[in-house]
Each structure stands twice: as C-alpha cells, then as structure tokens.
Amino acid sequence: TPLTITPSSGTFNLTVGTPADGTAVATVSGGTPPYTYSIDAASGPLPTGVSFVEDASTNSIVTLAGTPTVAGTSTTPVLLDVNDSAGATAQLASRFKAIK
Do the Cβ atoms of 24 and 63 come closer than 8 Å? Predict the structure, then answer.
C-alpha cells in the first residue's frame, strides 16, 4: 500500500505555558517501515519550545513534545516529510499557533 499520513493537514492551537506533550498530529501508514521524519527545508518553524516526536513503540504516530513559550500572531505552515525504508515519501502540512 502507498505511504500515507492521516490526516494530511490540520490546524493546532497550542497554549503558551501548557505542555503539548503527546498531542497527536498524524498517523503514518503503508509503505515499508521503518519510517524517518524530518522538517522540510521549505517549512516554517514550529512554535518556540515545541518539536515533533515519533511514538517509539509504533514508529507510526507523530506527536508533539515541549511547551510553547511565546505567543504567535499567525499560523505558519509546518511541513513534515516522512520517508519509508523503500524510498517513498509523504508530507504533512499543518499549521500551529501558540496562544495565551
């Protein structure tokens, strides 16, 4: 089956000072595991203090870690590239905003 990310996009409002740990962003399926993840060169930044992490037990769930530290004024598209071990790629295009 083809490599897919569900959902392929989304908008997330994060609260400054509140941990985002474990907030599910997407699930990766298909392709040939294991998967690798990287922020695309054309991506905007995640809110300060927050990063993407993969669920180490499944290697297929992308969550957030960290606590946003600065409120933003707009949502910036963040592009997460996913690659499988056979060379297939998929991309998650989400928007994140840290709010007070």
Answer: yes
Q: Tell me: the pLDDT tens digits for 48-85?
A: 999 999 887 888 989 999 999 998 877 778 999 999 99
The four Cα atoms 74, 80, 48, 55 give a dihedral, to 10 degrees, of: 130
In the block, which residue shows the tokens 């907030």?
23
Q: Give the pLDDT score at 55.
A: 83
